[in-house]
Amino acid sequence: MSTFNGLPAHVLFVHVIVVLVPLTAGLLILCAVWPAARARLIWPAVVLSVVVTALMPITVDAGEWFQHRLGDPPVVDEHARLGHQMVYFVAPLLITAALLVFLHLRQGRGRPLGRTVVAVIAVLVLAAGGAAAWQTYRVGDSGAHAVWNGVIDH
What we know:
This protein has one domain. It has 5 helices and 2 strands, in the order E-E-H-H-H-H-H. By secondary structure, it is an all-alpha fold. It has a two-stranded antiparallel ribbon. Helix content is 84%, strand content 3%. It is elongated, with a radius of gyration of 18 Å.
């Protein structure tokens, strides 16, 4: 999909990503460090991690279409480079969500994992969530600079 109602689809998808990636990261971190939150929020967090992972290639494809439509301005190259890297930041969200589901199901069956394993999972979730949120900021910031510094004419 290249446009939606006359707007570049990338612009619309990006706003979804900018909201959902940090939200997903935050929910996963909450689930990792607070067992009561995990009991209530694990499934919405897993659904969000699947959604952001599925939306990432769609957003990148729409961005490539938009970039070519603009004539490949050099300042957009940095944004595109960072955007292509996002898959390496959302995939760990999905992986750590799966680890949290494993932890949740084990505890629900009365077979909790050891503290060390739980701590390692929590550290992995914190690292994946923090990295995904930071990369989302970097990609968004480079795109905003491209727009607001006059590269994209309206």
